[in-house]
Amino acid sequence: MNDTEEYEFKKKAIFDGMARRGQERVLKIGYENWDPFEKPKDPRERIFSSFSVKAGALVREYYESAGGKGESVAVNRELFELCLGLLQGEGRAITVVDFCAWLKQRTRAGEL
Question: I want to staple 106 with a disulfide (CB 3.0 to 4.6 A). Which of 32, 53, 81, 111 is the partner?
Answer without folding.
Answer: 111
